[in-house]
TrEMBL record:
Keywords: Oxidoreductase. It comes from Cupriavidus pinatubonensis. Gene3D superfamilies: Medium-chain alcohol dehydrogenases, catalytic domain, NAD(P)-binding Rossmann-like Domain. InterPro entries: Acrylyl-CoA_reductase_AcuI (IPR014188), ADH-like_C (IPR013149), ADH-like_N (IPR013154), ER (IPR020843), GroES-like_sf (IPR011032), NAD(P)-bd_dom_sf (IPR036291), Zn-ADH-like_protein (IPR051397). GO terms for molecular function: oxidoreductase activity. Its EC number is 1.6.5.-. The keyword Manganese does not apply. It is an enzyme of class 1 (oxidoreductase). Residues 20-326 form the Enoyl reductase (ER) domain. NCBIfam families: oxido_YhdH. This is Quinone oxidoreductase YhfP.
């Protein structure tokens, strides 16, 4: 089969706005690379939704197939490390941004970007984890490297119903941490408790500027929101508490003081999921073992390929929760219907 479907982002509309459309491609339309992958599942991440809406100048060259993470099976390989049929996962390295990504039934990428799935993780599990779960696990990996442990006290997670947030709540609670989930979605408290959140708090607690140091509450914090939420985390950390700054779904600004850093020894870690392959392999191995999420079936919602555009719109209007996983090897949406 040399014809397949991709969701391509274009900037050729008369008003210059970015718009996506389903397009039939052939293998020779794919970018160069050593490994051809038949995509089984592709995640939807906040960055994918921003890119599809033409926001934040994420994609700079069009047309582009979005999708920053994918799982599937090797269909052909010029790289001796991979054989036809190998189950693999690819995320980052510019896929879905500078290089065509996972929102297509086939992808061609460089062998250096491809990671064989760890033993015990299926493509569906790997895509439910996706960049979001990898990022949550990478945050925890570096936090524990900085001496955080469950005995030291609670860990607060912001944007808790999102992809990264949901994965963080699940993995932390499975590992014995007391998790306080911060979420603006009052209707999702039962969901957050089902992932293992012990307490739930509203982002309202962070909305007012406070003193440079406030009541010390948290041994750890994973922040996906930025802005006043991260500033509040800094001033409410316990001595030697560890913060992982992961995202800026609320704001990229940070208005704070150095006092939590120098008077309480708070450690502020930056987390970038686009990490070197050796670190990916180490963290994915943990995701298949000690950091294995328990609630993937609750966190993941599998949708068909033709539901992708609507799902990305809903994500930007904050109407999604957990991980949205696109089933790619389903029957193609009907080309005749002009999809
Ligand atoms: N550092 C990295 O390498 C890396 C990797 C992956 C993701 N990220 C970043 O992490 C963030 C989360 O990504 P995701 O894929 O988990 O996205 P997501 O599924 O859309 O989750 C984001 C969550 O943040 C909260 N939120 C959304 N808009 C907000 C706003 N305007 N103000 C305050 N809170 C808001 C919502 O949680 P509640 O409704 O529960 O409050 C939402 O569910 C994004 O900024 C993303 O770019 C970074």
């Amino acid at each position: 089969m040399n014809r397949f479907l991709a969701y391509r982002l274009h900037d050729d509309s008369p008003d210059g706005r970015v718009a996506g459309r389903f397009t039939e491609l052939r293998f020779d339309n794919l970018p160069p690379g050593d490994v051809l992958i038949r995509v089984a599942y592709s995640g939807i991440n906040y960055k994918d939704a921003l890119a599809a809406a033409g926001r934040n100048a994420i994609v700079r060259q069009y047309p582009r197939t979005g999708g920053i993470d994918l799982s599937g099976h090797v269909a052909a390989s010029d790289d001796p490390r991979f054989r036809e049929g190998d189950a693999v996962v690819v995320h980052g390295f510019g896929i879905g941004v500078d290089h065509d990504g996972g929102h297509a039934q086939y992808a061609r990428v460089r062998g250096d970007w491809v990671m064989r799935l760890p033993e015990g993780l299926s493509p569906l599990e790997a895509s439910t984890i996706g960049v979001a779960g990898y990022t949550a696990a990478l945050a925890l990996h570096w936090m524990e490297h900085n001496a955080m442990s469950p005995e030291q006290g609670p860990v607060v997670v912001s944007g808790a119903t999102g992809g990264v947030g949901s994965m963080a709540v699940d993995i932390l609670s499975a590992r014995g941490y007391m998790v306080h989930a911060m979420s603006g979605k009052s209707a999702e408290h039962a969901y957050l408790r089902s992932l293992g959140a012990g307490e739930i708090l509203s982002p309202e607690v962070a909305s007012q500027p406070g003193k440079a140091l406030e009541k010390a509450q948290w041994a750890g914090a994973i922040d996906t929101v930025g802005g006043p939420v991260l500033a509040w985390m800094m001033r409410t950390m316990q001595p030697n508490g560890v913060i992982a700054s992961v995202g800026n779904a609320g704001s990229p600004q940070l208005d704070t003081t150095v006092l939590p850093l120098i008077l309480r020894g708070v450690r502020l870690l930056g987390i970038n999921a686009n990490s070197p392959m050796a670190l990916r392999e180490a963290v994915w191995a943990k995701l298949a073992a000690d950091y294995r999420p328990r609630r993937l079936a609750t966190i993941g919602q599998v949708i068909d390929f033709d539901a992708l555009p609507d799902a990305m719109d809903r994500m930007l209007s904050r109407a999604t929760r957990g991980r949205l996983v696109v089933r790619m090897d389903n029957e193609s949406p009907d080309l005749e219907r002009g999809l």
